Amino acid sequence: MRLRNIPHAASTIQGHQAVIKRPEDQKGCWKNVFGNDNPIYIEIGMGKGRFLMNMAKRFPNVNFIGVERYSSVLLRALEKYDTEEFEGLNNVRFICMDARELTNVFRKGEIDRIYLNFSDPWPKARHAKRRLTSKEFLDIYDQILAEDGRLEFKTDNTALFDFSLEQIEESNWKILQFTYDLHNQEDMNEGNVMTEYEEKFSSKGNQIHKLIAYR
Ligand code: SAH
């Protein structure tokens, strides 16, 4: 997702209390950011943030961090966060960064769950390493995720989903569960929180795929 350049996005983000401005300074200290010992779940590429904020509302005893590369997109999430719907939601923070840098920001074991929702497909083979479920990224997640942590991935892109299943296997991660049709798979769909892209693509008739992986 890339929105048209929004003037002042960077300065608005810098001034927002839910945005962690120098996330690398918090490495190893994320519990202090939230002021409690609750588990920390992150969404990488959270876009406009509906999933992240609705999850945070539903699970007040979990801390959520949204990671987004583009300031123009993060700005949209912050606008939503500032509405009445999410007033008083104090278990959410945002970081504007590239997922490539995650190991500079989180220490081993600091993250309990990683969500990837409708990640960019990068369809050209020569761009495979940029896919957020590539072996290269799984190695990064391995360095921040708790031993019993898990990765949850949703997409409507079958080629990307199949690629992800292969990469997970090749990286010696394990698949706990997967489905090509989440919305018609009762037990995996229970409690499902929809993302913006999920709404959009499922209303077009696309099937939503989901996998849960662990090591
Ligand atoms: N998760 C949202 C948005 C999906 S679009 C939803 O399901 O509705 C994918 C998002 O991931 C985009 O906003 C894009 O900017 C972000 N993204 C892609 N690569 C990224 C990376 N390397 N680091 C951080 N964010 C990334």
Could you please describe the fold and organization of this structure?
The chain is α/β, with parallel strands linked by helices. The chain is 30% helix and 21% strand. The protein has 8 helices and 7 strands, in the order H-H-E-H-E-H-E-E-H-E-H-E-H-H-E. The protein has helices spanning 9-14, 30-34, 50-58, 71-81, 135-142, 158-170, 186-189, 196-203, and strands spanning 40-44, 63-68, 92-96, 111-117, 145-155, 174-179, 209-214. Strands 3-2-1-4-5-7-6 form a 7-stranded mixed sheet, with helices on both faces. The protein is globular, with a radius of gyration of 16 Å. 36% of the residues are buried. Bound molecules: S-adenosyl-L-homocysteine (SAH). S-adenosyl-L-homocysteine binds next to strand 2 and helix 8.
List keywords for this structure.
alpha/beta, 215 residues, binds S-adenosyl-L-homocysteine
What is the β-strand count? 7
| Separate helix tally | 8
Range of helix content: 25-40%
What gap, in angstroms, lies between the N and C termini?
Answer: 30 Å
Question: Strands of the largest sheet, in order across it?
Answer: 3-2-1-4-5-7-6
Mean pLDDT: 96
Element-by-element helix/strand order:
HHEHEHEEHEHEHHE
Poorly predicted runs of 5 or more residues: none
Structural class determined from secondary elements:
alpha/beta
Described by the principal axes of the CA atoms, the overall outline is globular
Q: Strand fraction band? A: 15-25%
Radius of gyration: 16 Å
